[in-house]
Amino acid sequence: MTQGPTTARHLILHGRVQGVFYRDWTVDTARSLGLAGWVRNRPDGTVEAQLEGASDAVERMIAAMHDGPPRADVERIEQRQIEPEGLSGFERR
Is the pTM of this model over 0.90? Predict the structure, then answer.
């Protein structure tokens, strides 16, 4: 399987994404794909995340994040390409 170059994305997730175990699901899913980064709730009810890793894994993660855990209802994901920071591990903030 090709890994592709390392890439990084900053994401803001809109919809019913707080109080539905979205952050825990994100940590588990990102770790299973070998990604680094973090996820946190924002005061406005959105969830913010940074993903870093092989570009194919980042794309798979973003695709999965449109569905998220069972009780989530993701309306849209804002994303922008950023420079990788060399993060290691994936954490909930």
Answer: yes
